């Protein structure tokens, strides 16, 4: 099964390969015709653990939480990790930090940069915390991800793979 969060009125697949498989759409606005109405800043989401093989969020995560709010940052990634099956993928599109839209949209409350993804990969994090300026948040979250990304002029495209069980 696939989940598209913050779907709005679109059902277009922008990342990954193939067609949607049993697509479920989630949005806070029931007027979009989404399958599930839910505030994305409220956890847990109304799904069982290990339900989806893919979760997609296109121009959504920059609307969630607040810049500098590490609790909401990790809570989001923990929640997506919870509902993904082992090896499931989380596809994300966000504005590039250098794009005029990163902060130009009044609803954008955070920027997600490639450097932040290092905090989500437990082996990388363990090797670098204490040796770099990285703050040690490890006791406060459970998820573990492998990440790949692409930097475009105005956007980042990310693909995070859920490492389950967490490696450290």
Describe this structure in words.
The chain has 168 residues and is of the alpha/beta class. The chain has a single domain, classed as Rossmann fold (3-Layer(aba) Sandwich), CATH 3.40.50. It has 3 helices and 7 strands. The protein has helices at 70-83, 101-104, 122-128, and strands at 2-5, 23-27, 36-37, 52-58, 84-95, 145-151, 155-162. The protein has a 7-stranded mixed sheet. The protein starts with a strand and ends in a 6-residue tail after the last strand. The model has no long low-confidence stretch (mean pLDDT 95).
Brief account:
This protein is an alpha/beta fold and about 170 residues long.
CATH architecture: 3-Layer(aba) Sandwich
Shape, principal axes of CA atoms: globular
Low-confidence stretches: none
Strand content: 25-35%
Q: What separation lies between the terminal Cα atoms? A: 28 Å
What are the SSEs and their pairings?
Layout: E1 2-5, E2 23-27, E3 36-37, E4 52-58, H1 70-83, E5 84-95, H2 101-104, H3 122-128, E6 145-151, E7 155-162
Features:
168 residues, alpha/beta, Rossmann fold, 7-stranded mixed beta sheet, 15% helix
């Amino acid at each position: 099964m696939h989940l598209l969060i913050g779907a709005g009125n679109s059902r277009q697949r922008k990342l990954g390969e193939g067609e949607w498989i049993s697509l479920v759409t989630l949005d806070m606005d029931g007027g979009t015709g989404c399958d599930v109405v839910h505030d994305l800043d409220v956890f847990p989401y109304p799904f069982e653990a290990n339900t989806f093989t893919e979760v997609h969020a296109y121009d959504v995560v920059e609307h969630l939480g607040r810049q500098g709010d590490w609790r909401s940052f990790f809570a989001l990634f923990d929640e997506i990790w919870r509902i993904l099956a082992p090896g499931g993928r989380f596809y994300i599109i966000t504005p590039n930090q250098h794009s005029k839209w990163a902060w130009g949209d009044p609803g954008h409350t955070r920027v997600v940069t490639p450097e932040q993804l290092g905090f989500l990969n437990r082996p990388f994090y363990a090797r670098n915390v204490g040796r770099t300026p990285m703050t040690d948040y490890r006791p406060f979250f459970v998820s573990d991800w492998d990440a790949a990304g692409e930097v475009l002029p105005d956007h980042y495209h990310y693909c995070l793979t859920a490492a389950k069980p967490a490696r450290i």
